[in-house]
Amino acid sequence: MRPWSDGWRRVISAPVVVAGVFLVTLLAALPLALTLRGMLQDHLGSSLAANDAADGVNYGWWQEFNAQTSGIGTTFTPSVIGFATTLDSVSGLLDRRTVITPIASALALYVAAWMFLSGGIIDRYARGRRVGAHGFFAASGTFFFRFLRLAVAAAAAYWFLFVYVHQWLFARWYVNMTRDIALERTVFFWRVLMYAIFTALLAVTTILFDYAKVRAVVEDRRSMTGALIAAARFIVRHPGRIAGIYALNAAAWVAIVAIWAVVAPGAGGSGVSMWAGLVASQCYILARLIVKLQVLASETAVFQRSLAHWGYAAAPSALRPDPPVVDSISEPRPAPCGPSAAA
Amino acid sequence: MRSRLARCATFIALVIAINAQASQRFDRPLPGAHSPRNASYDIEVRLEPGDRTLHGHERIRWRNISANPASELQFHLYWNAWRNAESTWLRERRLGGNTNTPRADAWGSTDITSLRIITPGGVDELTPRLHFISPDDGNTADRTVASVPLPRPVAPNEMLEIEIDWSAKIPRPFARTGYIDNYYFFGQWFPKLGVLEDAGWNTHQFHSGTEFYSDYGVYDVRMTLPRGYIVGASGREVSVGDGPNNMVVHRYQGEDIHDFAWVTSPDYLVRTRPFTHPTLPGVEMRLLLRPDHAGQEDRHFDAAAATLRYYGEWFGPYPYGNLTIVDPGFQSASGGMEYPTLFTAGTRWIAPRHEIDVEEVTIHEAGHQWWYGLVGSNEFEHAWMDEGINQFSEARTDEVAFGSRNFLSRRYFGGVIPWVFNDIRVEREWDEGLAGYRAQAESDAEATPSFRYWPSTGGNITYFKTALWLHTLENWLGWPTLQRAMSTYFDRWKFRHPQPADFFQAIGEAAGRDMTPFFDEVYRGSNTFDYGVQQFTSTPAGKDKFRTTVVARRFGESVFPVDVVTTFNDGSKKSERWDGVERRIIYRYDSTVRARSVAVDPNHVLMLDANYTNNSRTLDSRAGDASLKWSLKWMAWLQDLLVTYASLV
Fold first, then answer.
1. pTM > 0.95: yes or no
2. Each residue of B28-60: pLDDT tens digit?
3. Which residues in chain B are contacts of A188 at CB distance < 8 A?
4. Which of A63, B226, B355, B599 could form a disulfide bond with B616, CB atoms 3.0-4.6 angstroms apart?
5. What stretch of H or E contains A132?
6. CA distance linking residue B279 with residue B259, whole number of Å
């Protein structure tokens, strides 16, 4: 429990980090949202259909729009309402649903942003004190290219899981095991088992790469292969602690999602209820992000507590070079060519 | 006046001419019966679960009710559609996009081992003469239709007795029939005679996109099964007794029906409930429910009772006295299908109360007792006459009986976890398949024989286009007129085989006008309807004066009369009736107030309008509000997706 509560403390003590990742999440989605707004406005034109769409749901118009649109317009479905957003995203991930190019592009940029920020975030949590923007982005920059190398290995691992393992589980094993079952309830439990196995494999993979990042930052490792091996060793040596932390974080995630399932607003109107719905949804996204940061913070705490000096964080502050004017004063150089030189 | 009288006289003559052209000359009911009973079957069948086979013996009493002698007999052997990969059915399935190769244990087949005709002079063995024909596509690999020439012709109204021994390999489910684990559903399972019409044998091959067609008779079926298996079947159970080898013989009889289906499994809960009504006959409802759906009895019974009530009140009473509702086995592909006095519904283990899928399918399949069961239209050639008319009837019943809790739902996690959108109540036209019709409106004209539709698009034309033009008729002519037409058609054609013209005739009679132009558009044509506003302005034209200009346009190729209603800021309206023939029409108004909005077909009479958003314009558009609201919701959806996928980073 202590690393878990320590993780929360670290997250709460770095509100700028929370605000930063929320801003990144908002900025990643905003451009496409503006594009969709234009598409919706063009389609509605000056039709009276807009009145019902503004005040509630005009599903007749919605179906027409879906029939006539393309690109991100095809993703504008009833799954954008309330709790369906989470059901859609989680089931889309676990069912390996295809993501269209514009969304995939936004996703790639968002993942890259997280890769960049992760170094600074872990460094901040590891140090347990303010590092300032300079220190944060210095650490982010230092570790970004290391994490990029790590990402190659991660990409390969996830590719194997989603392309091969998912296929084995759902398209072969599940089909073969349930082919001769005429009771839906039994088939349902087989499917839950497949999801549990796949989610467990994803979790193990994520934990491995998370701890590789933690060890890379805390110990200033330059070899990501070494970081991975070290992470694996650490996990093997502390399975209970790691599983316990993961379970607590998962429970926090479930609690957040469960609350959202109850309080998520419906379609609503276009006035005050629209803004209230926006605030509610952004609070939910913020809560999800805080849980994600808590995962990193608690993993960092778990690792540091296993060290002899448990507050240890190795990576030195990155040195920023002096500005050019200081350079030129401290080390005089020949004047550049020009009239004064000629003189 | 004179031209109107001439039109009426022509119309009446046409009516008389059409009415004289029933497809079978002698199709009137036998004395004391509801139907001609010209194809009656006594069948004994034994199920062997060990090797998944059926072994049957049937005696058919057939009467030639056509106008011409019959020199051959033609039979359907439907299960041969799954004998090999080159049947017409499987070829068409591949054409429709399903290229999955069936597993080795999936195939099915029917083999006739003996075919004899029984005459006063003796028995004629005809087995060697049996051969396969492919009247639709010439596919010699297709063995779903067999023909046998007769030693002498059977004259009109003459009776013939036929005995057939056969065995069948039960398929794993391709469509509607087969086994999965210890669940068996048997549809189209026995050699069945085609329909001999005045124009000749109407015996189509089994196509992937169409269903069936057969004559009425009496069925007496004895099914020998392992002990412990529960049975549901067409007709009524008359006895249960011991059979050989510790098996049990279930005997069912059904009168005035044109098919016989049955289901058996040891895993069923059996429930019964009577249907009663002050003016309609009582019906004993029997439900076979899967054990994991226990607790959903009421939903099935309530939906079936709603069908018996509303279809009975609107079209005519259900005459059989008993109705079997089958909850099909999961993955059996036998759900959502109709048979005389028995139908399969289909529900889910997790079935929220405000997702009325189970009610919809129950009403739809129960409704087929009228449109298919009692009115025996040809499902090969005119699938819309049962599916489309029934889709309309079902959507109407859904709205009346369960509309208050009919909400949109989606299923996630492989189609398992439902989520109901309490903001989106399902409107009737969505039940009628407006979205599906719109997507494939021009794929085929409805007048095309159904078995010739493109395999993957026929459903949208058959079910949804028909339901939508019937809804249009209801809006246009009024429900009392349409209801009168449909009940007249039902009463006139129950226990018979109608043609499309018979239905159109009933509509025309009730409407009191020539409906040919309407049916030329919706039935014989495949163009789309699309009316809208091309231009709308209301500009100052002097002191306290406004000039309003409305240009309404026919964007589609099909024609229908529509109203054009302009609303002004003081609430006043100007309403025009446009015949919709020309490409556009212009209306101009001078008024002291500015116009606010215009709508073409504001009451949505024309349900087939493929693009209703362009039907209206307003000078005070709220598109900005609507687009902002929904784009913000979409943004939250995208943020959720980003955060979910980034959990792996």
1. no
2. 999 999 999 999 999 999 999 999 999 999 999
3. 349-350, 416
4. B599
5. helix A132-159
6. 28
Residues with Cβ within 8 Å of B364's Cβ and at least 6 positions away in sequence, in order, are B336, B390, B391, B394
Q: Phi and psi for A305 in degrees, rounded to 5?
A: -70, -15
User: Going along B276-390, which residue ranges are E strands?
Assistant: 283-289, 322-326, 337-339, 342-344
**Å between A86 CA and nearest CA of chain B:** 6
Which residue of A34, A36, A74, A183 is the best one to mutate when testing the B interface, meaning the one whose CB has the most B CBs within 10 A? A183
Do residues B170 and B332 lie in contact, with contact meaning Cβ atoms separated by under 8 Å? no
Which ipTM was obtained for this model? 0.92
Mean per-residue pLDDT over chain A, rounded: 91
Query: What residue ranges of chain B have pLDDT lower than 50?
Result: 2, 13, 15-20
Nearest to B632 among A50, A54, A278 (CB): A278
Beta bridge partners of A48: none
Q: Would you give the DSSP letter of residue B321?
A: S
* C-beta of residue B627 within 8 angstroms of C-beta of residue A37: yes
- Cβ neighbours of residue B327 closer than 8 Å, sequence gap 6 or more: B287, B288, B289, B290, B293, B296, B300, B344, B345, B346, B347
Q: What pLDDT, on the 0 to 100 scale, is given for residue A218?
A: 92
- How close does chain B come to A195, measured CA to CA in Å? 9
* Mutation site for B-interface testing, chosen from A26, A37, A199, A295 by largest number of B Cβ within 10 Å: A37
- A40 to chain B: which residues are within 8 Å by CB? 623, 626-627, 630-631
The pLDDT of residue B436 is 87
Cβ of A292 within 8 Å of Cβ of B414? The answer is: no
Chain A residues inside the 8 Å CB shell of B437: none
Pick out chain A residues at pLDDT < 70.
Answer: 308-321, 327, 330-343
